[in-house]
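Colleagues,

Please find the record for the two-part complex below.
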Amino acid sequence: MPHLLPRHRVGGEGGFAALLLTPTALVIGAVVLMPLVVTFAYSLMNMNLLSDHKGAWVGGANYAGVTTSTWFWASLGRTAYFTAVSLVTETVLGLLIALLLNQKFKGVAFLRSLVILPWAIPTNVSAALWKWIYHPEYGVLNAVLSALGLIPTYQAWLSDPFGAMNMVILADVWKMTPLAAVFFLAALQFVNKAMYEAARIDGAGAFRRFFTITLPFLMPTVLVIVVMRTVEKFKAFDLFYVLTRGGPADGTKVLTYEAFLRGFTNLDYSMAATLAYLIAFLILGLTFVYLKVFKTQAGVQDE
Amino acid sequence: MKKNFVPAALAGALISLLVLSGCSPDKSKGPVTLNALFMKQAGYSEEDVTSATKEFEAAHPGTTVNLTFVPYESLEQKITTSAEAGTYDVVLSDGPFTAKFAKAGLVQAVPEIAAADLKDIFPGALDATVYQGKSYGMPWMNDVKYLYYNKKMLKAAGFDAPPKTLDEMVSMAKAIKAKKLVQYPIVWSWSQAEALMCDYTVLSSAFGGAMFDASGKPTLTSEGNKKALAFMVQSIKDGVTNPKSTEYLEDDVGNVFAGGQAAFALNWTYMYNWAKDPAKSKVVDDVGLALVPGTSEVASATVNGGQPLSITKGSKNPVEAWNYILYLTDRSFQKKYSKNSLPIWKSLYTDAEVVANNPEVVAVSKDQYNYINNRPKVPFYSGFSSQMQVKIQEALLGKKPVEVALQEAQTMAEGLAAQN
């Protein structure tokens, strides 16, 4: 009902509102929008500081160069492996922990707050922690496993390219499983208890009740976790930076680390910008797919 | 009146902010503030730099120097991201960065120093600051790798003197291993990191190889490189090199050696004080220091780990910055603090005070500095280094034969050279 408001007040307030928004707009423009645009421009230029042809427009050549290279696909493969394995492990473990913590037993409140602890630790701190746990000479993992007689001699856990990746995944799972557990636990609070009662009377066992009541009910939560964590895992950087620096033999060189190296060490800003945009496009694509799946799922449930 | 106050004040604040950040006052007159970036670990300590800086400020009224200390690992990135803006005027650089920073225009060429002074600096240290005939810094911290050996183990195996050649070192190591004095006699820093490139530079140079020729063309498939890499692979196969070396950095090498778990180790100067420190070391009385063993081609070879001071492109006070650098690299500073880092000046190596501070290290380093090799001085070194590390490790871990790894490295290096 804009016509009901006094005319001069509209103009005055509008102007005032615009003025109040200006600082925020300037800040967002300067630190978010401009870098986005400049980065995109860099991905279309030769911005290798060490090149004799710096500043030349190259169009899609950077994208073509990256997507036809073997290192990009190898790096993408490692990123996908890291994302998939840690995501599945975290989700399954998180669900099991949530189911356990959803029971009523003595000390459950204490356990519920304890389980959140790894998640509360900053990633680079937990990465430094794991670096010590995996230490080939003084690591607690070696000490524990050899004391239990599970390994004959101390192992260099991060020395094998594929093994190192799995060790990074273990560190990530340790830290992020609590998040999944808390999400599931929250969702479980809203399950209709009467349905279990009914199912029990109808003679459904524990497994049957889980797969026909609990799991379908938790599907939206699963999807939230999957979407959110995929995005974060594709961007994972600090864990790799602290634990392995992409090594050994490139075994843990994921896309973000590749982009970091090319930008800040090799001074090839165009390549780093191209990779940054490719990562963003990939995440966008994945999110789109997830949303599609989510909608179909929701549709099925409604019917 | 009142209604307009808030927006007016906001606009005013905004304008003054923009003006303040946009224009800087004329600095040619009046007090000058320099910002300097140093590192936290190794070499001259924070206290050394801080107290020398206070002396400099006292001698140059009107000039203040703000000091920032960061870990070595952050130096390169700090310089890269701040050089254009001139956030720091003086930065502690590193030999392998010189070509890159110079080509990318991140550091300024520095004035020439007197011919007499030039002659008094070790050529290898000086060379690390030069790119295409121009100098982009002044050598400041001096460092090379030495051979450390465990005197007790050598004696127990029947050897009175450290090895002169790499072959001799391996045969000594085999004897030590046979006597079960230690499981793996030699330890290196062969982790996928710059540390690996340092050791590889030593070995490649010892076998008469070079990674690049004088014109910057890669020569990774040369005989010297093949021999060096084959030597590394074989020493792991023979069980004389600690297999965990492929995961070790310099600190790990220090831990292993100081823990009495190695007969031989290659490391920088800093490990000497460490291995001699009863609180940290089990081998305090057994530490031997010697020239890095050579081959039939060279008597010895080592790698330059010295770090120069440079002036960033964005510095608005290059004259004062250079004065500050000259102050810190002066003989008097380098003499006073020689306990923590050996001087760049040859003449100081006969100075009684310097010798008294570190007699054993000075005695060896005097010779060792004549066998300095710099890591390849190509602008694309960082990219080359990170991929070369992978190639070397693929050979070390037995994933690829030596020849294949080096051929792939050559192709990779040619590709990088062509991009520039």
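The interface with chain B takes residues 12, 15-16, 19-20, 22-23, 26, 48-52, 136-137, 156, 158-160, 245-250, 261-262, 264-268 of chain A (CB under 8 Å).

Comments are welcome before we finalize the supplementary table.
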